[in-house]
From TrEMBL:
Top enzyme category: oxidoreductase
Pfam families: DHO_dh
Family the entry assigns: Belongs to the dihydroorotate dehydrogenase family. Type 2 subfamily.
Protein name: Dihydroorotate dehydrogenase (quinone), mitochondrial
Entry-linked PROSITE patterns: DHODEHASE_1 (PS00911), DHODEHASE_2 (PS00912)
Amino acid sequence: MSKLRETAALFLGAIPVFLGYETWKGDEKFYSNILMPAIHNCFSPETAHNLAIKLLSLGLVPKGKNEQYDKLSCKVFGQTFSNPLGIAAGFDKHAEAIDGLNKLGFGFVEVGSITPLPQEGNAKPRVFRLPEDKVVINRYGFNSCGHDAAAARLDKLTKECNINRCKTLFNTVSGIGTIVLGVNLGKNKESTDFTKDYTDGVTKLGKYADYIVINVSSPNTPGLRSLQGRQNLQDLCTNVVTVKEGLPNKPSILVKIAPDLTEDDKQDIAYALLQSKVDGLIVSNTTVARPSTLVNSHKSERGGLSGKPLCEIIINSLSFLFPGKLPIIGVGGIWNGKDAYDKIKAGASLIQIYTSLIYEGPPLVGKIKRELNQLLEKDGFTNVAEAVGADH
Ligand SMILES: Cc1cc2nc3c(=O)[nH]c(=O)nc-3n(C[C@H](O)[C@H](O)[C@H](O)COP(=O)(O)O)c2cc1C
């Protein structure tokens, strides 16, 4: 009997050791099938997210494989990326976890959206998981620390690095390779001068950024999406480009658009962007549409929907906008190397993820890079840049 008890105690004692080891090792299946579902059972989406940001800000990331692939290194907007996979805006809203995200193996990190003044955002709960649908619905409403707090954080990070080595955070944050930093700008809910909200952002945060994103596509700030109209967008972008020309590092200017646009809307946007001389486009933000396939009971929650259903919508938008004259970051519903590859072949020079990371956990970064590298290899591409727009 005591032998049985000893064996049981040994077995029970081994469980936390096994779980701890698998967590540290960053096993893909362990994360997607065991750890992430367990975390989702224990914590609300917002609490789980805050916990992830805390761990990343402390540099606590799974060991993972974090392999570098020569084929994935590329040059876009005049910047060198160690790989084309970035973390999308909304994950590190307050620029707290840049180094941790870099260590996860992302080729670039986009922080924000950051508004001029701090604001709370909408009432909680404001994020919902729909696991059966591989979807998240959020209505955060630009909860933001504001420009000053973000600038202080980026300033500290820059000083902690060897700032003499380069002009921005680029190449200085981590020891594992190069990282490109994007700063995504939003407007305050109560603001009446939207142009000033964005130009102030460029003045205050532009010097830390390799690229700046004008986010005119969040569905959770009333009136924001109307800034995608031809004249509004052209005027806004022209002002932003003028302000950035005054900065010593001259970050690239990108505009992030919604997926819910008609062909006419897209034509207007393409015209406005080319006229105002911005450097690129991010396609796309979350959608207000609710696909009929959704099954989870949260499907009618208000807000922007992200995840798997976006994948096809984005491919169609990329096909419409490509071959354009501007580089595009493709984001929406990327779950594996094939999804990433399809976006690249449809015209995206770079790609980003958010929702899939919520469900699959950090090992997904290495998995997407590995699979993308294999697909490029299989089709005989020597570099990812050769595959951009290959479907056209
Ligand atoms: C919880 C959440 C918050 C987000 N917040 C922002 C944001 O502040 N600014 C922004 O430009 N996009 C934001 N996004 C949109 C993402 O950057 C991305 O465009 C979208 O989720 C599609 O990618 P995905 O399907 O890989 O998640 C948010 C997305 C989610 C899920």
